[in-house]
Design a protein that fits this description.
about 160 residues, mainly alpha
Length: about 160
């Protein structure tokens, strides 16, 4: 909705359409490949058997990869939503235009957003800590009570 409103305002004021260029697919492929590589390193680091294969991985870097993956998935979803709004606008103009290049650019940007979304979700899932099967409950244990005013739930008199 917002994408189509901003696009319409830009066109009405004499500007260009707010679609991303087709080169964005290449950028999204590069970013997705880097994220998949680091996500695979985090997945290897999270298992004790394969930890020695993840040479330069630390817990802090693994957390950064997880945050990057989440940001990448959200960016891909936002980019796809924006480009779908532009695509609807482009499809309405196909009969009046002599060229297909704006529609192709929009479809390429939509594909780039899909690449970011899928790679981000995959890497997010790879960054999850597997449960410890040796403990009862699959690694989930009782949490220690929290000190302070928020930790007290029943001792208020």
């Amino acid at each position: 909705m917002t994408g189509s409103v901003f696009n319409l305002l830009s066109i009405k004021m004499g500007g260009r359409e707010l679609s991303l260029p087709a080169l964005i697919v290449l950028v999204c492929l590069i970013v997705g490949t880097v994220a998949l590589y680091w996500g695979r390193q985090v997945a290897q680091y999270s298992r004790v058997e394969t930890r020695n294969r993840a040479t330069n991985m630390t817990p802090l870097f693994a957390a950064r990869v997880a945050v990057f993956a989440q940001a990448m998935a959200l960016t891909g979803a936002l980019m796809m939503g924006w480009q779908v709004a532009i695509l609807v606008y482009q499809l309405g103009l196909t009969g009046a235009r002599a060229t297909w290049s704006p529609l192709v650019d929009t479809l390429c940007a939509l594909a780039g957003g899909l690449i970011l979304l899928v790679c981000g979700i995959l890497v997010e899932n790879w960054c999850k800590i597997p449960p410890n099967d040796d403990e009862p409950g699959g690694g989930l244990t009782e949490a220690a009570p929290q000190p302070g005013p928020l930790g007290r739930t029943s001792d208020k008199t």
